[in-house]
Backbone:
C-alpha cells in the first residue's frame, strides 16, 4: 500500500518541485497553488473527499467515464484491461536484468573512453534504448505473447478486466497527491540550497542546461533532500493507516478490525500492529540513512 | 574652476532621459513574451496550462457559486428539479453552522464557547503581533489564567451548569485538541530534546526510546490505544474522560516530534556558546534557559510551526475514535435524513477543507513572517 503510493508520488513530486521554480509564470503559479492548497488540508479529509464526494457520486458502470486505453472510471472504481500472460513472456521479463547489466558495462566503458580520449558517449540515450529496446525486440520476435482482456459491460457491471476498488482508488489518489506536495517542497528547498554560483560556473565551463542540472545541481541538491525525504516516506507509511477511515483493509484494519473481532485479545493485537509499523519505520529509516551516508559530503 | 567658467566648453549637467524599451519588450506584451512564450517548450507548457484552466475553472466556479443553493431549510432546496444541474448546497452548511462549531453543546449555553473562542483569538492577537504592548504579560496570561478560565467556562461548575465533554463538538473540539496539544507538547519536546543530549546514560536512553517509539507508530494506533486500551489497564471504577485521553495521546505523540525538531536547533548552536555560558559560571539550567534555548528555539521556529500545522491537521483523526470534531460533526450530518442529497457530502467536505486551510495557511504565513523578523545577524 505505502510502497505503491511512494512510487506514484516520487516522480510527480520531482516535476512539481521543479515546476514551482520554472521560468514559466503560469506553470510556477499553478504549482504553487496546488502545493499550498493541498498541504494545508488534513489527509483524512482529502481521503473522505475522494471517497465520499468524488468516487461515490460517480455514475454507475453504464454511464461511467471512458478514459483512453479502455479504462473506465465509475462508482465501481477504476476498471482496466487485464493483461493475460502468454507463452514465453518470462523470457521477455528475463531480458530486463540482462539489459540492465549490459547498460552498466556500457556506462563503465563509456566513462573509461571519456577519461582516455575525452570523447563523450550518449550513455543516457543508449541505455534507454537498451533497457526498453531489448525486451521489446525479444517481445516482438517471440510473437507478442501478451494479450489484454478488455472489460465489457454485461448487465449492471463489468465482466472481465481488472478492477481497482473505489476505496483503493481514493486511497491512491489522496495519499499520492498529498505526499507529493510535501516532497515537492523538499525538492524545491534542495535545489534552492545549491547556490546560483554553482550553475553559473557550470555554464561558464560550457555545460548545457540539462548537463548542469544533472551533473552539478542535482548531486548537490540530493544531500539536502535525502534526510527530509526519509521522514516523508516514513510519514507516508504511517499515513497509509488512515485507509481504515474509508474502509480499505490495510494493516491496521486487518489487525485491529478482523483479528480483534475474531480473537478478542485486544491488547496483544494493537501491540502487534504498533510493532509492525515500528519495524517498517525503522527499516525504512535504516535504508534511507544508508543511502544518505553514500551521498553525504565527505568532510575532513 | 576658472577655466571652465571662462572657456566656452559645453558641459552637460544632467543625464539624458533613458529611452523607453521597444513596445515588444515593455508592458503587458513584453511580460507575456518573457514569462510565458520565451522558448518552444515554454509555449507548449503555457498553452497546456491555459487549456487546463479553461477546461477546469468554469465548471468549478459554476458548481461552487453560480449553480449553488444558498438558502433553504431542508433537502427540498438542494434536490435537482426537472433535470437542471445543481451546484453546492451551501444552505446545508448554513443551517448546520452552529452544530459544526459547537457540536451538541446546549443551545442556551453556547455563549460560553463563543466567549472562549473570541477571548482566544484576541489573546492570540495580543501575543502574536509584535507591536502590541506588554506582550510578556500577555504570554503569561495566555499560559496560566486563560486555560483555567477556559476550563471553567467550557466545563462549568462554580455557578455555571456543567456540560459534559461528550456534548462538546465541532470546531470547539478541534481547537481544544489542537491548542492543548500545542501547549503541552512544547515543554515536553524541550525536555525530551535536552534529555536526548544529556550525558546521563539513563535519561538519554529513556528519551531516545520514548522519542523513537512514538515517532515510529501512526497516530491512529496511539489514539486507539488511548481510547480502547487505556481503560482496560485502569482499575474498575476509575474512568476518565475520552476527550482527555485523546488529548494525552496527541500531546505525547506531538511531543516526540517536537523533541526532534528542537534537537536540530540545539545541535546548530556552536560549542563555544555552551563553553561561554559555563565560563560565566552559569549552571546547566541557567545556561540552557538564558543562553542556549533562546538561540536554539529561534533557529527552529519554522520547524516548530510545521509541527503545529501537522498537529492541527492530525486533530481530524480523533473522529475515528468517535469524538465529534469539525470533520466528525460534518460527517455525522451526512446521514441526516432531512438534508440527504447527493451534493451535501462534497459541500460539507469543501467547507471543512476551507476552515482547516485558513488555519494552517495563516500559521505557515505567520511563521514565515516571524522567520524574517527574527532573522537578525543570520542573513546571508
Residues:
Amino acid at each position: 500500500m505505502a510502497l505503491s503510493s511512494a512510487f506514484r508520488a516520487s516522480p510527480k513530486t520531482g516535476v512539481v518541485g521543479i515546476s514551482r521554480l520554472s521560468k514559466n509564470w503560469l506553470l510556477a503559479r499553478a504549482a504553487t497553488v496546488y502545493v499550498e492548497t493541498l498541504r494545508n488540508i488534513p489527509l483524512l479529509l482529502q481521503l473522505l473527499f475522494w471517497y465520499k464526494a468524488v468516487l461515490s457520486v460517480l455514475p454507475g458502470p453504464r454511464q461511467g467515464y471512458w478514459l483512453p486505453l479502455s479504462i473506465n472510471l465509475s462508482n465501481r472504481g477504476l476498471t482496466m484491461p487485464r493483461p493475460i500472460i502468454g507463452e514465453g513472456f518470462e523470457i521477455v521479463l528475463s531480458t530486463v536484468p540482462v539489459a540492465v547489466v549490459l547498460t552498466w558495462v556500457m556506462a563503465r566503458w563509456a566513462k573509461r573512453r571519456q577519461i582516455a580520449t575525452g570523447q563523450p558517449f550518449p550513455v543516457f540515450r543508449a541505455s534507454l534504448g537498451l533497457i526498453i529496446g531489448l525486451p521489446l525486440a525479444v517481445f516482438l520476435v517471440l510473437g507478442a505473447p501478451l494479450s489484454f482482456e478488455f472489460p465489457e459491460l454485461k448487465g449492471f457491471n463489468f465482466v472481465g478486466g481488472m478492477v481497482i476498488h473505489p476505496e483503493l482508488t481514493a486511497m491512491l489518489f489522496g495519499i499520492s497527491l498529498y505526499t507529493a506536495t510535501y516532497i515537492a517542497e523538499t525538492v524545491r528547498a534542495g535545489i534552492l540550497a545549491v547556490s546560483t554560483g554553482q550553475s553559473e560556473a557550470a555554464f561558464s565551463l560550457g555545460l548545457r542546461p540539462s548537463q548542469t542540472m544533472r551533473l552539478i545541481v542535482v548531486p548537490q541538491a540530493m544531500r539536502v533532500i535525502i534526510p527530509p525525504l526519509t521522514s516523508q516516506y516514513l510519514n507516508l507509511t504511517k499515513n497509509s493507516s488512515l485507509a481504515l477511515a474509508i474502509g480499505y483493509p490495510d494493516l491496521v484494519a486487518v489487525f485491529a478490525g478482523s483479528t480483534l473481532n475474531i480473537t478478542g485479545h485486544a491488547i496483544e493485537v494493537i501491540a502487534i500492529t504498533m510493532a509492525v509499523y515500528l519495524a517498517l519505520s525503522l527499516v525504512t529509516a535504516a535504508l534511507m540513512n544508508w543511502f544518505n551516508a553514500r551521498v553525504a559530503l565527505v568532510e575532513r | 574652476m576658472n577655466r571652465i567658467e571662462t572657456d566656452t566648453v559645453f558641459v552637460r549637467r544632467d543625464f539624458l532621459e533613458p529611452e523607453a524599451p521597444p513596445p515588444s519588450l515593455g508592458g503587458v506584451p513584453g511580460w507575456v513574451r518573457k514569462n510565458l512564450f520565451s522558448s518552444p517548450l515554454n509555449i507548449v507548457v503555457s498553452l497546456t496550462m491555459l487549456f487546463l484552466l479553461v477546461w477546469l475553472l468554469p465548471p468549478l466556479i459554476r458548481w461552487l457559486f453560480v449553480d449553488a443553493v444558498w438558502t433553504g431549510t431542508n433537502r427540498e432546496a438542494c434536490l435537482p428539479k426537472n433535470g437542471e444541474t445543481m451546484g453546492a448546497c451551501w444552505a446545508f452548511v448554513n443551517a448546520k453552522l452552529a452544530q459544526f462549531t459547537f457540536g451538541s453543546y446546549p443551545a442556551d449555553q453556547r455563549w460560553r464557547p463563543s466567549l472562549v473562542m473570541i477571548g482566544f483569538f484576541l489573546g492570540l492577537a495580543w501575543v502574536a503581533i509584535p507591536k502590541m504592548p506588554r506582550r510578556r504579560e500577555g504570554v503569561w496570561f495566555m499560559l496560566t489564567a486563560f486555560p483555567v478560565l477556559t476550563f471553567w467556562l467550557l466545563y462549568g461548575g462554580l455557578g455555571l451548569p456543567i456540560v459534559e465533554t461528550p456534548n462538546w463538538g465541532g470546531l470547539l473540539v478541534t481547537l481544544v485538541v489542537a491548542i492543548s496539544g500545542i501547549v503541552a507538547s512544547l515543554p515536553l519536546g524541550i525536555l525530551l530534546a535536552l534529555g536526548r543530549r544529556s550525558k546521563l546514560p539513563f535519561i538519554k536512553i529513556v528519551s531516545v526510546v520514548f522519542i523513537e517509539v512514538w515517532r515510529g507508530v501512526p497516530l491512529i494506533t496511539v489514539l486507539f490505544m488511548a481510547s480502547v486500551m487505556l481503560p482496560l489497564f485502569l482499575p474498575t471504577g476509575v474512568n476518565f474522560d475520552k476527550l482527555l485521553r485523546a488529548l494525552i495521546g496527541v500531546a505525547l505523540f506531538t511531543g516526540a516530534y517536537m523533541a526532534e525538531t528542537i534537537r536540530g536547533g540545539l545541535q546548530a548552536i556552536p560549542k563555544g556558546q555552551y563553553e561561554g555560558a559555563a565560563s560565566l559560571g552559569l549552571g546547566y539550567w541557567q545556561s540552557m534557559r538564558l543562553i542556549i534555548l533562546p538561540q536554539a528555539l529561534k533557529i527552529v521556529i519554522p520547524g516548530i510551526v510545521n509541527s503545529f500545522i501537522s498537529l492541527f491537521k492530525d486533530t481530524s483523526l480523533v473522529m475515528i475514535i468517535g469524538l465529534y470534531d469539525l470533520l466528525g460533526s460534518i460527517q455525522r450530518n451526512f446521514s441526516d435524513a432531512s438534508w440527504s442529497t447527493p451534493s451535501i457530502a462534497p459541500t460539507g467536505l469543501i467547507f471543512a477543507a476551507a476552515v482547516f486551510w485558513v488555519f494552517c495557511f495563516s500559521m505557515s504565513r505567520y511563521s514565515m513572517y516571524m522567520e524574517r523578523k527574527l532573522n537578525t545577524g543570520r542573513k546571508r
In short: The beta strands of chain A are 65-67, 71-74, 77-80, 82-85, 146-149, 152-154, 157-159, 162-164. DSSP finds ten helices and eight strands in chain A. The longest strand of chain A covers residues 71-74.
